[in-house]
Write a structure and sequence with these properties.
5-stranded parallel β-sheet, 281 residues, alpha/beta, Rossmann fold, single chain
């Protein structure tokens, strides 16, 4: 069965829209998200546009600050400090990747953890690690929301996460552990990857390698979540070879239209959460 991220995200937006209009009535303003976009990376420009559109659909005030490719690290940190101090800004994201003159970790950790709606600062990562309430990274949170919508029970299942980045793999593994799954973390350097993926009741793949996972690597009835977006000659491919894997999977996400829309949905849910936390709603 196809796990339709696009349809799920749109249906979740309906209830979020009602919530946002309640907050506007109660507090006199909409939650506000500021996205910092450095340079003109086509993928980044396209992501930020999608985020702007999603904000608009639910009634959030979404603003993009565009900075030139040659902006200094000092200037970027200064802008983040100003936004941290601005009570009218509830959430802030810095679109990655950043140009090489800028230390990415330094920038992400400069964002006030209460406004860090991408959940990538050390403080929010630490809260997730220690099972404390914080803002969760958007992609893993979006995947959890999708699994919940399809009523997939995680307790006791064997989940295999392929990919160990701070953006997806590591926080994904932690979230699954927090939901009582048994978790194995692999990556592209794992020896005999197939021997691990064949054990998975739930397989989450986030490596950025086109069609890394093929039908012979997946057991019958597995749930497969493909986080990969690989653009090759104008076409988009996932990390999972959909054609050979889909017949074996009980549930599978398509690429595009699976995890991508859920990531954006999770991000705008985080903005509303940050607003409510700040207003003790």
């Amino acid at each position: 069965m196809l796990m339709d991220g696009k349809a799920t995200a749109l249906s979740l937006e309906e209830s979020l829209k009602i919530e946002v209009s309640r907050l506007i009535n109660q507090y006199g303003r909409a939650p506000k998200l500021v996205a910092l976009l450095v340079g003109n990376n086509p993928a980044s420009v396209s992501y930020v546009k999608s985020k702007e559109k999603a904000c608009k659909r639910v009634g959030i005030n979404g603003v993009t600050l565009r900075l030139t490719e040659d902006v200094s690290e000092e200037k970027l940190l200064e802008i983040i400090d100003d936004l941290n101090m601005d009570d009218g800004v509830d959430g802030m994201i810095v679109q990655l990747p950043l140009p090489k003159q800028i230390d990415c970790d330094k920038v992400l950790n400069q964002i006030d953890s209460k406004k860090d709606v991408d959940g990538l600062s050390l403080l929010n990562a630490g809260k997730l690690s220690n099972r404390q309430k914080g803002l969760l990274p958007a992609t893993p949170k979006g995947i959890m929301m999708l699994l919940e919508q399809y009523q997939i029970e995680l307790k006791g299942i064997h989940a295999v996460v392929v990919g160990a980045s701070n953006l997806v793999g590591s926080p994904m593994a932690k979230l699954l552990i927090n939901h009582h799954a048994t978790v194995t973390v692999c990556h592209i350097h794992t020896k005999d990857l197939k021997s691990f993926t064949l054990q998975a009741d739930l397989l989450v793949v986030a490596t950025g390698v086109k069609h890394l996972i093929t039908g012979d690597m997946v057991k019958q009835g597995a749930i497969v979540v493909d986080v990969g977006i690989n653009k090759i000659e104008g076409r988009i491919y996932g990390d999972v070879d959909f054609e050979s894997v889909a017949p074996k999977a009980s549930f599978i996400t398509p690429v595009p239209g699976g995890v991508g829309p859920m990531t954006i949905s999770a991000l705008i849910h985080n903005v509303v959460e940050a607003f409510k936390e700040d207003h003790h709603d």
